[in-house]
Amino acid sequence: MLRGRESDNIEDLRDGGGFGGRTIALGGGGLGMIVVIIAALLCGVDPRQLLDDTPDTTQVQQPQSRRQNPQSNDDQKKFAASVLGSTEDVWGKILPEQAKRRYTNPKLVLFTDRVDTACGYSTSATGPFYCPGDQKLYLDFAFFSELKDEFRAPGDFAQAYVIAHEVGHHVQNLLGTMSKVDAAGNDNRLSVALELQADCYAGVWAYYANKQGLVEAGDYEEALRAAASVGDDTIQKRSQGYVVPDSFTHGSSRDRVNWFAQGLKSGDMRQCNTFGR
User: How confident is the model at residue 213 (pLDDT cuts 50, 70, 90)?
Assistant: First the structure.
């Protein structure tokens, strides 16, 4: 298991502590099934697209105080903290060197089922995501089980790739890339380029993780397998039996693998210009 310095930028809201005292909506007909299908495409999606806002809901008031999490020292949390710590060390060094920008550490929020963010309410069906509004990464560990069982991409480094991809979105946010794409409106090509660049940034991190001594034999293959498994074409073939390239939001399996490999090979974020293809 990948182990290194553990970050303390972890916010653990598991066991139902993710909503504070706000009113949330439960229930809602068939939206959940639609989200489950879409979730296969997700590894960094803007959660505002998938908010649970169905009208047929029951309002439930959550308690104001968050319960103490009895799993605060579990292995999964330690693993995620180690990966996050590694990304902090890497980007804290190379972002000033390669982009002349200071790196500020994001927080990783662990939740179960539902969570309230600056980007709105979201559920675990969304998959891991980054919210630029609060500069936090959100992760329900149930996704790692899906990555292994549904997407056939097991292994610690495959999970590390997922976290590193979301950190890649944080880097894009710090550089202003995300705001530029958002300002351009609903452009699928730019959305795909944004996701592929996050894959490339994950590869850049992996390059330096190797120098940190955190990479073992077979780790890179795990990450490449994970990148391929969440390609839009692979997911569409599995979910609907055919591929619609114009509907891609994250890129094909081949593109995701190639851009991760580009970052991994170069260790240079300047080689991640997915917008200039």
Answer: confident
